[in-house]
Amino acid sequence: MRxxxxxxxxxxxxxxxxxxxxxxxxxxxxxxxxxxxxAETERALAALEAVGRELESRAQTAGGEARDMLAAQALMARxxxxxxxxxxxxxxxxxxxxxxxxxxxxxxxLLSGASDYMSARVSDLDDVRDRAVARLMSLxxxxxxxxxxxxxxxxxxxxxxxxxxxxxxxxxxxxxxxxGPIGHTAILARAMGIPAxxxxxxxxxxxxxxxVLVDGASGRLTVDPEDGQISRxxxxxxxxxxxxxxxxxxxxxKDGHPVPLLANIGGPKDVDRALASxxxxxxxxxxxxxxxxxxxxxxxxxxxxxYREVLEAFPRVVVRVLDAGADKPLPFLPPAAVEPNPALGExxxxxxxxxxxxxxxxxxxxxxxxxxxxxxRLRVMAPMVTDAEEARLFTAxxxxxxxxxxxxMIEVPAAAIRARDIAEEVDFFSLGTNDxxxxxxxxxxxxxxxxxxxxPWRPALLDLMAFAAEAAVGAGKGCGVCGEAAxxxxxxxxxxxxxxTSLSMSAPSLPLVRAALAAHTxxxxxxxxxxxxxxxxxxxxxxxxxxxxPALETLxx
Amino acid sequence: xxxxxVRVESMVGLHSRPAAEFVKAAARCPVEVSVGRHTGELxxxxxxxxxxxxxxxxxxxxxxxxxxEGAEEVLDRLASLFTQFSETNA
Lengths: 557, 90
Known about the structure:
InterPro entries (chain B): HPr, HPr-like, HPr-like_sf, PTS_HPr_His_P_site, PTS_HPr_Ser_P_site
Organism (chain B): Actinocorallia libanotica
Number of strands of chain A: 16
Strand content of chain B: 15-25%
Keywords (chain B): Cytoplasm, Phosphotransferase system
Number of domains of chain A: 3
Radius of gyration of chain A: 25 Å
Subcellular location (chain B): Cytoplasm
CATH topology of the largest domain in chain A: TIM Barrel
Oligomer: heterodimer
Strand order of the largest sheet of chain B: 1-4-2-3
Protein name (chain B): Phosphocarrier protein HPr
């Protein structure tokens, strides 16, 4: 019996045979082709047509964004210019696989040189190429395998498009060798309710068909588990389910200290699920999601309607003004120049300072949406604020628009370190743990091979969060957390112990966090926070916090 | 050769879904259709990869060309797609 340990990102227990998806299709060798070039061309085009058909049928079963992406990929597979390049390649003596590979390479280069948006399409193009090359070389087609028997999916990392196509009835759990707790994979897995472990070293070396037990809460994968282990894991899962069922009402510790539990949303479409999970409000309305990937911009009236719908559903709503730039470019908020490192460039409030009319327009729309509602219902916050001067500017812009609750996100380490200066200028803080981790550990969120460095349990991040919370409490203001760290029930207790005043997360994570808080007193949370901060490594911090929280075991955590 | 000048009204430029819809419509046309910048080289409008590589941004002007029988009607239809993008833009 072997065990692998990764990071559990979506709780639940899954048992089944392993299917390992090899994600690398090799470059076809440039050997000369001897044979009938016409037949070889037919073979190449037939492979592309098969890929096009497959992608098209997947597009029809997928929904939303995934559908558009897959439909565009199907068009790429059937591209007539691409077919022309392939014909030329084969008649010049290339094999079908090599000609396909080189022809895609030509377009790959064209697209990589275009805008950021286009460069992001390069991975879609590579995926089409790999599918076609795999067919021509008789290799396994990358992506989720077809299987009638429920299985545990093992991959290096999982693209959101692949994940969207997984059938939760077939995939009992999935494990990625890379990927991190804040990646799309983790977020989508929780939303779909599939148990999942990410950054699990050794997972790719498992053999197809080996039976494993996946515990998405502890991050433990057990090869060839004994019955006793399976029943223990299931018992813990039941305990969690019971805890979730019995914890209702507003978020509070065992001794009644309130910690409002809020939902992160992208728009009115997420309201129902947030309400169903018992969210007491919205702690992060990512307003840029209303604009991303839209063919047409929202009019002011449409914006007002979207805000109003959310404001009417909850007693408190924190709207983040447009957080564009870096991985979320918006066409009407361009940075001044091409940036070698967009994560460190003009994004968030920095971009809005360049385009002040956009900020003014959004604040005006927000003020109109909140007309006639209680004054404390709408709170507005700015992303990527570095210092007190920027905070002051944003608060002034909000006041000018008639908005009385202005806050900032703490994502830049400088803002956390000097939170005391900034607390004077704003009405509240919200800790954006994902970006704060990216900046304090100097690790790009998109670099999956370095996600181990972005663990929110690292004491350096705990210290920064403590600085911000202490500064807010000292100034009599609120300090929430709206990063994925808040979704970890153990971390949620530590955050409450650090002085954080509200927790916002994706809706499915709320019930377990509510149960963990309700099972511990504020003093126990404070002791766990102090113990975690006293540790030297992330795993020691996790262990120390767990040791200080006695009810975790009965909750199955 | 028939020709039309159109303006890219879609917020995302001629990318994403607008590009896919344009290419699909062009592919259904019985004649050859090309597209390009006002002064630049023309590319095959039936090729998604060529159209994406144009990287046409919102507000840019593009030239649509077609040759052969029915070219005028084909261009009317394709140009109307651009107006549709702009109407939903309002």
